[in-house]
Specification:
Strands 1-2 form a two-stranded antiparallel ribbon. It has 2 domains: 1-98, Collagenase (Catalytic Domain); 99-145. By secondary structure, it is mainly alpha-helical. Helix 4 packs across helix 5 (119-165). The model is unreliable at 171-185 and 194-198 (pLDDT under 50). The protein has 6 helices and 2 strands, in the order ββαααααα.
């Protein structure tokens, strides 16, 4: 069995395979080889890669809308999957890593234009969404960015002030405090618990 892709949320690692996308993978003799469509392979691989990387940021399979985070049981299902995250998964990813949605659409459009081929249609879609958002919120966009920047600065100031007011729970022994393997695993479990419900 060939795996399209696999990711571990806990370890934040992932792997994908391009074997199913290469038509020559299943050919027995060199005489039967077909021309390799590198753009097609890049397009299909990028969709699998986006899916697995998004898993690595803690987003599970999507059951709400047609979305790149829908599960795939075979290569054909991966073909019909959209290249974009649905609104639910987009917000989950934004909450996890933080980004400006409008700027994201602009940048994705540029990337797709640079790749060309199968990526062009996706680039047009990203540009269309960008235009739609700008039509609706364009007048307030600069104000929104300024408010967002101001909120980030305030949040950073609060976090820095917390660092200086925190008291250690136990005295530090020597230069480095020893942490047991069990203690490290408990802390890791606490971090993983943050992803529950996403």
């Amino acid at each position: 069995m060939l795996v399209l892709g696999l990711a571990s949320l806990q370890n934040r690692t992932g792997v994908i395979s391009i074997a199913r996308y290469d038509r020559n993978f299943f050919v027995d003799s060199p005489e039967e080889y077909l021309p390799v469509d590198t753009n097609y392979i890049a397009w299909r691989t990028s969709k699998a890669m986006v899916h697995e990387i998004t898993h690595m940021f803690g987003v599970l399979h999507c059951v709400y809308f047609s979305c790149i985070m829908n599960g795939s049981n075979h290569a054909e299902e991966n073909t019909v999957k959209p290249v974009e995250l649905c609104p639910v998964c987009l917000r989950k990813l934004q909450k996890t890593i933080g980004f400006n949605i409008v700027e994201r659409y602009q940048e994705l459009n540029k990337v797709c234009e640079n790749f060309g081929g199968s990526f062009v249609e996706a680039g047009k879609w990203y540009l269309g969404i960008y235009d739609l958002v700008m039509k609706k919120y364009g007048a307030n966009y600069k104000k929104y960015l300024e408010e967002e920047k101001s909120q980030k600065v305030k949040q950073e100031q609060v976090e820095v002030s917390k660092l200086f007011t925190m008291k250690p729970k136990a005295p530090v022994k020597g230069i480095m405090q020893k942490v047991s393997i069990v203690g490290a695993k408990i802390k890791m479990d606490d971090q993983i618990d943050l992803y529950k419900g996403l």
